[in-house]
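Field reference: sequence -> structure
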Amino acid sequence: MIIDGASKLKNFRHSKEHLRKTEYMLEVIRKASCCVNATIDQKMLAIKELEGQYSVHVLCEALNLPRGTYYNRKRRENTVTSYVLDDEIIKPIIKQIFFVSKKRFGRKPIQYKLSELGYRVSEKRVCRLMKEMGLEVEKPIYLAEHKKAIPRYYFKNHLNQKFEQGTPNKVWVSDITYVKVGMQYFYVCVVLDLFSRIAISYGI
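Structure field:
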């Protein structure tokens, strides 16, 4: 097999880069404050001490630390934990999220929104701070209305469980339900023809 000059040059450069990388990795292993069998925390500290002197790729490979783990840890360093946050710092943030949601968000949604903003706060703590500020979730109107006494009118049973009808438009039936769309509830009323089971009409 004949190898041309360009291929030889390419192979030479590749070998040279590989050798240089190996030399850098050996330097990292000599300078690092931990060995390759150390914990992830120890490796992260050692990489931090050598950052700027070598590339992240070389540092991670030399200490046998996956780069994905390294970058995930770096992102978490920018997250503020609940232990270093004072209640008076978190309170206005919780209050703002609560009122932006039009008083609909409870402790779980607020905790989720806090995590999106980079604040790691427990659900229990969010609940406590909401109580201290007197923030109570407003219940949907339909729940409050449903608790009221509703007059019941009973009519004679004309159908007697005969749901299979042989002719169209002989028996129509109707019922209502409610569905949630976004943060609102809508009542839906549908009229069916028992013969065809087709919705003749509906109202929302």
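Note: The CA atoms of residues 28 and 62 lie 7 Å apart.
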